[in-house]
Amino acid sequence: MRKLIVNTIRKEKYKFILITIISIFVWVYGLLFPYLNAELIDNLTKLKSMNIVLRIIYTIILLTLLNMVLSYVLNMQMAKLKLKFTYQIIYDVTEHLKRVFILFFSDYKPVYLSQRIYNDSNSLITFFLDNYLRFFTNLGTILFSFYMLFTINFKIFICSLVSIPFFLILYNYLKSPLYKWNLILKESQNKFFTSLSEQYIYIKDIKTNGSFNQSSKLLNSTFSKLLTNSINANRVAHLFYSLDGIITLLLQSVILVLGSKSILDGHMTIGQFTIILSYYSMIIECIKYYLNFGKSYQETKVSFNRINELYSVKKEHNGTKIIENINSVSLNDINYSYTYKNKKEPYIIKDFNYKFEKDKIYIIRGHNGSGKSTLIDIIIGLLSENLSGNVKYNNINIKEIDLYELRKRNIAVVQQFPNLMSDTVLSLFNYSDNTKENIKLIKNQIKELGLMGLFYNNHFDLDKFWFKKISELSGGENQRIAILHALLKRPSLLILDEPSSALDSDSVNELINILELNKLDTITIIVTHDERLFTICDEIINIDYNRTNSLLKTSS
C-alpha cells in the first residue's frame, strides 16, 4: 500500500516539488511576520525614525502581496493534485480488484464498495498532502518560537515548555476511542449510502410490489445506526477538544500575567510582548495541530487499513501462453460448488465431461438453477475457486493460458441482459470519433459478414442508433447491439445467452441464418429454450440437476 502511494506521487513529482517550495516560502513568511510587526510597534513607540518605520511597512506590504499570490497558486495546485492523487489510488485499487476472483464481489454491494474506495482514498490523500510538510514545518515553528521566548523572557519560556506533556497525555488517553469510533462511523456511513442508493436502484420493484414501508424500514434502520454511531464519535471528539481548550486557557492566563508584569517592571517592550503573544499562539496552534494530527491519524489509519484490505486481496491466477485461435475446449471431470459464508454448498456441477470443437454449434438447455450460467463461467475461466478437474483450450490447460488476452481477442459472450460499458453505440466499437467515415467502415463489415438482414429491417434500423446513448436503449435494442458487437469481433468462441428472447420472428430467422453462415472456424455455444434455434445445432447438451447425486447428465 505504501508503495502504491509512493508511485502515485512519482507520477506528479514536479508539481509536488513546486508545491513543496511554495509551501516553505509561505511558512517562512508566517514565521517572520510577528517579528516585523514587533519592530514596527517598537519604532513607533520610541519615535526613532520615520524612514525606518516606512521601510518596515514597505517590506511588510511587499511580502504580504507576494504571500497572497503564492498562497493562491499553492491552493489551486494543491486542489488539482489532491484530485489527481485521489483518482490514482481509486484507479489502482479498482484495477487490482478487476483481477481478483469474481466471487469476491458477492460479499460486497457495488454502491458500498465504490463509495468506500472513494471516501477512503480521498481521506488518505487529504491527510498526506495536508501533513507531509506541515508536520516538519510546525516542528520548526515550535523550536523557533521557543528560541524567541527564551531570548525575551525565561519564565514564560519555562511555562510554555511545561505545557507540552499535558497535551501528550491527553492524546494518549483518547487515541484508542478515537480510532474505534471513527472505524464504526465510516462503516455506518457506507452502509447508509448503500441503503439510500438501493431506494432508487430498486424503485421499479418497490412500486411494483407496493413495498414502500418495507424499503423505508430498511433505510430508517441504517440511518438509526448511523445516527447512534455519529453521536458516539462526536462525543469522543468533543471531549478531546474540550480538555484541549481548558489546558490552553489556563496556560494563556499565566502568560498574560507574567508578560504584563514584565512590561510594568520595564524588563520588556510592548513590541517584545506582542512577539511573545504571537509566538506563544503559534506554539499552541502547533501543539493543537499535533493533537489533531493524532486524531486525524487515527481516522486516516482506518481508511488506510480499509484500502489496504482491498489491495491485499489475492489476485486470480492468469497464465502466460497466448492462443491465436481456439480449435477445441475440453472439460474433464469437472466438479464445482459455491462457497457461502465459508461453508461449501452441494455440488452444482459434478463429474462433467465434454469437448467443444470448432465448426460446430452447441445448444445448452436446462431448467433454471441447473447450472447453465455456472458452466459458461467455467468454460471461459471465470470460476477457478472450488473447481476440480481440467479445462483445456487446444489441449492446453487453462491455467497456463493468458485468459485476459484470450477473452479479449478470441471470445465473445452476449448476456441475456447485456451491460454495455460505453457512451454512444458508435463509441462501443472503439471509434473515438463519431464520424460518418467510421460508420461506413462498420457497415462494410456488417455487409461482409452477411448481417444486414438482422440490423437493417422493418423492425430495426441501425443508422438511427449510432449516436444514441447506450443508457437510452431499450432491453431489446441493447441485446441486438450486443449481438452485433460480438459478431464483428469475429471470435473463435461465441457464447450467446438466450439471444432470441428480445427478437421478433423475422429477426430470429435472420440470426439463425447468420450463425449458420459464420459457424466455420468458430465454436458457437447457445444457452436457450427456444426450439427454433435447435434446427441449426450440431449437438444439444441437456443439463438436468439430479438431486440425489448432483450429476449433470449430457446427451447429444
UniProtKB/TrEMBL annotation:
GO terms of molecular function: ABC-type oligopeptide transporter activity; ATP binding; ATP hydrolysis activity
Lineage: Bacteria, Bacillati, Bacillota, Tissierellia, Tissierellales
Designated name of the protein: ATP-binding cassette subfamily C protein
SUPFAM superfamilies reported for this sequence: ABC transporter transmembrane region, P-loop containing nucleoside triphosphate hydrolases
Gene3D superfamilies per the UniProt record, alphabetical: ABC transporter type 1, transmembrane domain, P-loop containing nucleotide triphosphate hydrolases
SMART domains per record: AAA
Domain (ABC transmembrane type-1): residue spans on this chain: 17-299
Keyword check for Lyase: no
